[in-house]
Amino acid sequence: MHRRLIVPGVLAASLLLAVPASAADFAPGAPGIGDAYYPASGNGGYDVSHYDLRLTYQPATDLLQGTATLLTTATQNLSRFNLDFGLSVDEVLVNGKKAAFAKSGSQELEITPATPLKQGQSATVVVRYAGKPSSFSVDGYTAWQRTPDGGVAAQEPDSAAWWFPSNDHPLDKATFDVSVSVPDGTQAISNGVLQSQTSKLGWTRYSWRSNKPQATYLTTLAVGRFDITTDTTANGLPIVNAYSKDLGDNAGAARASVERTGEVVDWLSGVFGPYPFNAVGGYVPNVPSGFALETQTRVFYSPRQFARGSNVSVVVHELAHQWYGDSVSVKGWKDIWLNEGFASYSQWLWSEKEGEGTAQELADYVYAVHPADDPFWTVKPGDPGPENQFAGAVYDRGALALQALRNRIGDEDFFAILKGWPAERAYGNASVADFVAYAERVSGERLGPLFDTWLFQPSKPAAGSAPASAA
Ligand code: ARG
Ligand code: ZN
Fold first, then answer.
1. Pair 341, 381: CB distance under 8 Å
2. CA dist., res. 245 & res. 248, Å (int)
3. Nearest-angstrom CA–CA distance, 379 and 392
4. Which ligand minimizes its atom distance to the CA of 391?
5. CA of 154 to the centre of ligand 2 (A)
6. 404 alpha carbon, distance to own chain's centre
7. Cβ < 5 A residues, ion ligand 2
8. Distance (Å) from CA 389 to ligand 1 centroid
9. Helix (DSSP H) and strand (DSSP E) numbers for the chain
10. Beta-carbon-side half-sphere exposure of residue 331 (alpha carbons within 13 Å)
11. Looking at the predicted structure, is the pLDDT value of residue 42 above 70?
12. Cβ(340) to ligand 1 under 6 A?
């Protein structure tokens, strides 16, 4: 049986749509999505559901060119909207028609479609572009590292503007097809599953698909000469790892660490619940940097992470982010503790399992090693400010806060929360306040003061509130 309900409101809305809109009803989308730390990040007025990037990269010249096709929906009546992008643009089409475009500032691309977009309308946006990512930087910051054999896009909080136009903020996640053609003998690595690899006329095209919502900064590209290993985890998840052929002395330790990805992801699944994606792995390009990044399903590791020998702890940290950061993403960058506090705490749990010190011992150590006048305690992990977004305190004091929570509510509720939260918020966004409310709901306790002490005070919590004695 087919029943149709006619709601007066819906009827009224459809009548309204029939009235031709005047130009005054359309306004430009905001040039930022409203992030408290990074006002220019992301944009207002539309939502992207899918990115299709079809690119060519020549390592010898650092020239990246091709087409980005974005599937978008207007969330307001739009006369104009912005994308975040740093390379030069040749042409923009909106729903097949040429659109006017202009650069504004260093990384805003203003697009004026031939016909304004109505709220709720879908718009396919095609951007044709070419440029050298190494020639773009913002106040000395670059997310692109050129290597002797290629280049890598991996940085936080921004990396997309170096290689594709986007709504560059974790609030607007989308699925991705990334297809990159490189000279034969060179590989292109990205997120998700390799759909195809085809060679002709001296060029090989690698086509990758990431089929779950993915933040723009977690979308990565690495071009270079890699050794690639493939396997499946005990749970049947496909693993693809890639190692630059040029890792020198670090090659052994890098492999001895990253090849443990399957073991680590299975262990983390026991703590955090089912792994949220359909592929996993890591890559180690021959970059000079020292950091690692939780690029979705395919973690970026700098070779220097392995300079002192194997470092499974960093593998644990970056894979923990697949739940805490990638599947459940921040609402705003001030919520960074939801990423780094939990990824750091997972390293303590791993240490405990490996017999290298319990989480409690590591918490006591961090508490003791920083005296009260150490500037470490002036950073508030719950709102560290953009200048301290990746300060040590966000990680270590952030993990201390979780040990304090564990001691307050007990292991049963604590581990129920560690597993329940990624399920509750899978593929979405959350704030620190959302997490506090969730922890209060699961534990039945009032936890505001505890989180205020550990996350929001610019001073060392008193010994009485230290994790060890709070038990
Ligand atoms: N989320 C990354 C990690 O903790 C941090 C990357 C920070 N970026 C940097 N250049 N240090 O693994
Ligand atoms: Zn991290």
1. yes
2. 8
3. 9
4. 1
5. 13
6. 27
7. 340, 343
8. 9
9. 10, 23
10. 9
11. yes
12. yes
Q: Widest CA span of the chain, in angstroms?
A: 73
Q: CB-based contacts of 217: which residues, under 8 Å, 6+ apart? A: 155, 156, 157, 158, 159, 160, 168, 170
Cβ neighbours for 115, distance < 8 A, ≥ 6 positions apart: 95, 97
Average pLDDT over residues 153-167: 98
Q: What percent of the chain has pLDDT over 70?
A: 94
Give the tens place of pLDDT for each residue, 218-277.
999 999 999 999 999 988 999 999 999 999 999 999 999 999 999 999 999 999 999 999
Cα of 349 from ligand 1 centre, angstroms: 20
Average pLDDT for the chain: 95
At 24 the pLDDT is 74
Residue 464: the pLDDT is: 66
As given in the structure block, the two tokens for residue 52 are 């299709």
| Residue 158 Cβ < 6 Å to ligand 1 | no
Task: Pinpoint the alpha helices (H) of 324-459.
Answer: 337-354, 359-369, 392-409, 411-424, 432-443, 448-455
Alpha-carbon separation of residue 284 from 84, 208, 212, 287 (angstroms): 27, 18, 23, 8
Residue 470 has pLDDT above 50, yes or no: no
CA distances from 56 to 163, 164, 204, 467 (A): 11, 12, 10, 52
Determine which residue's CA is closest to atom 3 belonging to ligand 1.
Answer: 293
- How do beta strands 299-301 and 282-284 pair? parallel
In 10 A of CB 245, how many CB atoms? 12
**Tell me, what's the pLDDT at 12?**
43
Q: Decide: pTM greater than 0.90.
A: yes
pLDDT for 15 beyond 80: no
Q: Which atom of ligand 1 is nearest to the CA of 325?
A: 1
Give the nearest ligand 1 atom to 339 CA.
1
Tell me the CA–centroid distance for residue 375 and ligand 1, in Å: 20
- Distance (Å, rounded) from C-alpha 233 to C-alpha 149? 30
- Confidence band for 184, pLDDT divided at 50, 70 and 90: very high
Tokens of 452: 């205020």
ipTM reported for the complex, 2 dp: 0.96
Report residue 48 as tokens. Answer: 């992207």
- Cα 339 to averaged position of ligand 2 atoms, centre (Å): 6
Residue 156 Cβ inside 6 Å of ligand 1? The answer reads: yes
Cβ proximity of 171 and 45 under 8 Å: no
Q: Of 395, 400, 392, which Cα lies nearest the Cα of 362?
A: 400
d(CA 308, CA 323): 28
Average pLDDT (280-291) is: 98
Nearest-atom number in ligand 1 for the CA of 318 is: 12
First vs last Cα of the chain: how many Å apart? 60
In the block, tokens 């990384």 appear at 107
